[in-house]
Amino acid sequence: MAHPAATAVLIGVATFVLAPLASLVLIALIGDTGLWPHLVAHVLPNAAINTFALLAGVAVIAAVTGVGTAWIVTAYEFPGRSALVWLLPLPLAFPTYIVAYVYVDLLDGFGPVQTTLRALFGFRSAADYWFPNVRSLGGAIFVMGFVLYPYVYLATRAMFQTQSASLIEMARSLGASRWPLARDITLPLARPAIAAGLALALLEALNDIGASEYLGVQTMTLSIFSTWLNRSSLPGAAQIACVMLIAIAGLIALERYGRRRQAFTGIDRHPGIARRIALAGSKRWLAAAACLAPVALGFLVPLTYLAHQVIVRGLLLGFDSILFRHTMSTVTIAACATLLTLTLGFGVALALRLVRRRFAQACVFIAGLGYAVPGTVLALGLLAPLVAIDEAINAVTRCLAGVNIGLVLAGSSAAVVIAYTVRFLAIATGFAQAGLARISTELDDAARTIGTKPAGVIWSIQLPLMRPALWGAALLVFVDCLKELPATLLLRPLNVETLSTYIYQFATRGDFEEGSLAALIIVLVGIIPVIRMVRYADEAVQNAAIGRISA
Amino acid sequence: MNMRSISLAIVGVLAASPTFAQGDVNVYTYRETKLVEPLFAAFTKETGIKVNVISASSGLEQRIRTEGANSPADVLLTVDISRLEDATQNGITAPLNSKVVEQTVPAAYRDPEGHWAAVAMRARIVYASKERVKQTAMTYEELADPKWKGKICIRSGQHMYNNALFAAMITKHGEAKAEEWLKGLKANLAQKPSGGDRETARDIAAGKCDIGIANTYYWALMNDKEEQRKPWAEATKVILPSFQGGGTHVNVSGVALVKTAPNKANAMKFIEWMVSPQAQQMHADLTYEYPMRAGVPINKTIASYGELKRDPMPLAQIAANRKKASEMVDKVGFDN
């Protein structure tokens, strides 16, 4: 074997992700298939159509908003640009279902908007006029689209920023006008990034339960839950989850196949940004407004609403040692999980570069599958392997010391850290692969010819060059961990709450506003890495540009 | 923060020991910690036994089952009959064998085999517009009457509260009749099922619908404790409906003893304490539920709804029809 260490990393990480999935398959297999005629006749057609429509709608909003804003802030100079650059990713810090609650409260029949309308026009009740219903498929698309577009924005902006300036400027100098330039050069070059960002956004939308149920959209994921809970059939639920997993894996594979012949390594030897064009006149305000709108819808409106609730309800007085402890647990667990996720994700990507075999690619593909399973289902799948390891540990301690030490993994926060890692590994491997793809393999070869060992190449060449990708992945994984709910709920140990589970207990009671302060803390904790990362990425790009000029 | 304090914090959180001292009871619950914390605190104060908690919204039975012999779980404290039944069916519970529980909790609200018992009750009732609905009494069967066409609001038919109500309808009238009823109810809906029970009150207040189906405690909470939502309560009134020739549909919060409980004695103390006069009074005042123990006064606002005539049907019979009710919701496309 060419690179035993790299091969071991690949197999190890793939096994790590496969364990919960395999246990899910086992659960699915022990049940009979008696539920399927009913599911096929009465549940799946409707759920499939709703899910498809939801994903299509979210895809349109997320792609148009994410790519559009990423392009505007990268290519143009206009008032407010520098602030918008870091404001645009912020909707990510909100749990989707919280934003759904906020919009229902604001726009529903008794909310401030319609109450004002009624007062203005003298209507007596909500039955006297037409107003779009937030609790609908359209509402769900709107909410999820504007919360999830940052995945596309972040991935695409990183790509635009480092896109070969010479290529674009050459095309400009040859007189290519804006649209053909975008159509023929910019967008095709950014396609892998757009696809990666969009896949993350759509999988997140697919996993949602809270917002879909509240807004009355019967999705596939909801049908997994009613099969499990109301029809008391965990095997049935696992069967639906497995079928969905196969479908998703198929789609991802298809997308990869679609761009199998595209390789852009050559053009990335001079990464650097094309000059930003300063906009003049009304165009500058149009650009500013276009970028501000998604920030307002996905971030400022919910932020203002929550801040208002914190004040009206006097929640600041409720910031006690308990909430502080929850904040610390949240941050600690999220930080550990981020560290582990990045290590494994980048480890896999680096190993793939050494072991260029089909089996290695399969391992990387498997490593990304955790994101394609709803959080609760993943957590259920994870329990059995964790308990099995714990029982093995207990068998050893019984032999050696005659004591049972209990559930070391399944009964501690380690379970939550592992669940986050399995779930968000796709983000790390995605960013790592994208980051590595722009480092020419000629560079590796050059280093190897002067006698550098593979580990040396990784430390001295690849890791430093991948820093922007590392930061991007760290940010997304960290923020996703901060707000992760379903797996945390099911796996956390006794007496441990994260901010997200703390908010949820109010939400299940139908009183989510009481959790406003905790929601704001998540946002606050999330903002710091967002700003850091955006700044860092900008500096890195500028440094690269300066380096090029001085060379 | 330096590296040392970070690593200390990490060790602290990760090493949160899974086993606790003998003076503890470990409660896995579907209730919100914040809501029932005062109950736990009172128990600790009286007995000196510390209560450790995990709360979740689903999957606790599965977690206990998978954790197996090493599970720290002592007690499962739930809302809704469905969860109690699932726990029993998963084989994770042991019979309570408690005289105290048997004497306090009526037989219809206990598992015939003794695997679970109710600690409090809530009823699934009707909220109605004060302005547009003159009626003050009604039957559940009447909800399918075309006179309500376009006038009813409700949350998802797959939600456990509705699931139990529909299952009760099946138990009362048989599958065929219940399906007719569910179709009738669906035809009367003003909008697709969505939101929660509070939204039902809000929609009535906003004029989207005239009546809605919700649990007893929401109206009282909005009226007594939630200033911002008081207008929703003020625009609605509460009707306690009954089944034809029966009473009002009641669901429960309940407890079960985990088979592998490491602190069994403490667990039984906890369970028996939950039906004590003090705990029952706290339930009435904290969660706005109906106490199980006879003689414990009902919360004032809840009492103002009128006298609750509970339907006599044993809960176990309702729970047996949950799956059918869930499939019926799919079949008539209730949530579509």
Count of helix runs of chain B: 15
Main sheet of chain A: which strands, in order across? 1-2
Distance between the termini of chain B: 52 Å
CATH topology of the largest domain in chain B: D-Maltodextrin-Binding Protein, domain 2
**Low-confidence sequence ranges of chain A:** 265-271
Largest interface comes to: A-B, 76 and 73 residues
In helices, the fraction of residues of chain B equals 40-55%
Whole-angstrom Rg of chain A: 24 Å
Summarize the biggest pleated sheet of chain A. Answer: 2 strands, parallel
Q: Count up the domains of chain B.
A: 2
Main β sheet profile of chain B: 10 strands, mixed
Give the strand tally of chain B: 10
Q: SSE order of chain A in H/E notation?
A: HHEHHHHHHHHHEHHHHHHHHHHH
Question: Average pLDDT value of chain B?
Answer: 91
Question: How does this structure look, described?
Answer:
The complex is a heterodimer of chains A (551) and B (336). Chain A is an all-alpha fold and 551 residues long. Helix content of chain A is 76%, strand content 1%. Chain A has helices at residues 4-30, 36-75, 81-87, 96-107, 112-121, 137-162, 165-173, 178-207, 210-215, 220-229, 234-258, 282-312, 321-354, 358-367, 375-401, 414-437, 441-449, 454-465, 467-483, 486-491, 499-508, 516-550; strands at 76-77, 277-278. Chain A has a two-stranded parallel ribbon with strand order 1-2. In chain A, helix 1 crosses helix 14 (358-367), helix 8 (178-207) runs antiparallel to helix 16 (414-437) and helix 13 (321-354) crosses helix 16. The longest helix of chain A has 40 residues, at 36-75. Chain B is an alpha/beta fold and 336 residues long. The longest helix of chain B has 15 residues, at 33-47. Chain B starts with a helix and ends in a 5-residue tail after the last helix. Chain B has helices at residues 3-14, 33-47, 60-67, 81-89, 99-104, 160-173, 175-188, 197-206, 216-224, 230-234, 264-274, 277-286, 300-303, 315-320, 322-331; strands at 24-29, 50-55, 75-79, 93-94, 116-129, 152-153, 211-215, 236-239, 250-258, 290-291. In chain B, strands 1, 2, 3, 4, 5, 6, 7, 8, 9 and 10 form a 10-stranded mixed β-sheet that branches. Helices cover 43% and strands 16% of the residues of chain B. Mean pLDDT of chain B is 91; it is low at 11-21. Chain B has 2 domains: 15-121 and 251-297, Periplasmic binding protein-like II (D-Maltodextrin-Binding Protein, domain 2, 3-Layer(aba) Sandwich), CATH 3.40.190; 122-249 and 310-331, 3-Layer(aba) Sandwich (D-Maltodextrin-Binding Protein, domain 2). Chains A and B meet through helix 2, helix 9, helix 10, helix 13 and helix 15 of A and helix 1, helix 2, strand 2, helix 3 and helix 4 of B.
